[in-house]
Fold this protein.
Amino acid sequence: MIKLLKLQFNPIEENTYLVYDETGECIIIDAGCSNERENKILQKAIAYNNLKPIKLICTHGHFDHIMGNRFICETYKIETYVHKKELGNFERTATQSTYFGIDIALPPTPRNFLDDGDEVKFGVSSLKVIFTPGHTCGGICLYSAADELLFSGDTLFAGSIGRTDLPGGDYDMLINSLKKLMLLPENTNVFCGHGPKTTIGYEKLTNPFITEMQ
């Protein structure tokens, strides 16, 4: 059974997830830790729960989701996994962070790539990759049918959707990605890149961007 811890980091209040099962093997989804204090919070959460990080997964490459990549990769000797189309965002990390007035350690260039239908395995568990471009050109979500959960990155939020006005964003593409997510069971719990969790069913009923397209 998949378990998770949510940690909220950095001035943009990004959600970082520690995702693990009974074996203790752990993947880290979207490393937003941005300073020494936040790095220690992450380390303490990992140590307290006796977790063994084995992979760092990026739902996309915006700077607020990869601030902690270098720290995590160097501390736990693990590698980054992302969709290949996100490499442009990794190259723009310094420009993006400077625009928001935030200095970060530049992340290592990813060498491991995920695509639609791939499986991210840890312990005796796995998450299926769903390619969801629109917020960025290479955005992904991670889904477990068995555990009824979805990590949506910045594709879908509680009551909203990801912005599309940054480089690589495309509103029509995002709407098509959202249509794909709305095919998931309504009881699927959605853990977003920012803000609270929600469910597919609740978003179908209440999210104005979703109800418009039905």
In short: Helices lie at 36-48, 63-66, 69-76, 87-91, 93-99, 171-181, 200-206, 208-212.
